[in-house]
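User: Hi! I have a protein structure encoded as tokens and I'd like to know what sequence might fold into it. I'm fairly new to this, so please keep things simple.
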């Protein structure tokens, strides 16, 4: 009888500990997404300044500026993580296009405001990349727990499901073309 009570107590303790580990993992993922959101908000706030700075120089590049503004608006209006990932990938692509166009305007490249904005944008992009990495690491840990035995039993019992990682778009994965 005592052995049965000890086994049941150990089993109950294991179930509680595993459940709490899943909750801790899910909260870490939410926190990691929150960190991405903070950096994305910072990026979204930089974009109007960047557009204003280049607008006067790039009279013939209206379409490029409109793509950046449209992509920013889509990113701001994303409803969930999946929509946000797609919108942010589109925004990143349009920003790369804008910065490539800036390279064609030597007087714009030398503008102090433009240099400052580019530095801020680069810093923010690095922070976004770091936050994405932390988010994906949190998801990897959670998903491994969801799929590993014996915690998979608790995952199924309490309906814990694996999360999707934040992945870059195919355009971002492609190596940039370098011309001399």
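Assistant: Happy to help. Inverse folding works backwards from shape to sequence: for each of the 180 positions I chose a residue that suits the local structure. Here it is:
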């Amino acid at each position: 009888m005592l052995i049965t009570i000890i086994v049941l107590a150990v089993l109950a303790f294991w179930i509680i500990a595993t459940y709490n580990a899943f909750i801790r993992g899910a909260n870490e993922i939410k926190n990691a997404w929150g960190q991405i959101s903070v950096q994305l908000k910072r990026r979204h706030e930089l974009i109007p300044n960047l557009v204003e700075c280049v607008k006067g120089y790039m009279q013939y590049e209206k379409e490029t500026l409109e793509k950046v503004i449209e992509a920013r608006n889509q990113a701001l209006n994303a409803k969930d993580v999946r929509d946000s990932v797609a919108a942010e990938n589109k925004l990143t692509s349009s920003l790369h296009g804008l910065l490539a166009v800036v390279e064609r305007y030597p007087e714009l490249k030398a503008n102090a405001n433009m240099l400052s904005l580019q530095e801020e944008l680069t810093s923010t992009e690095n922070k976004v990349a770091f936050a994405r990495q932390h988010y994906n690491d949190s998801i990897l840990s959670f998903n491994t727990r969801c799929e590993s035995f014996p915690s998979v039993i608790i995952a199924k019992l309490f309906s814990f499901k694996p999360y999707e990682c934040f992945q870059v778009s195919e355009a971002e994965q492609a190596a940039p073309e370098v011309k001399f």
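A useful reference point when you look it over: Confidence is low (pLDDT under 50) at residues 175-180. Feel free to ask if any position seems puzzling.
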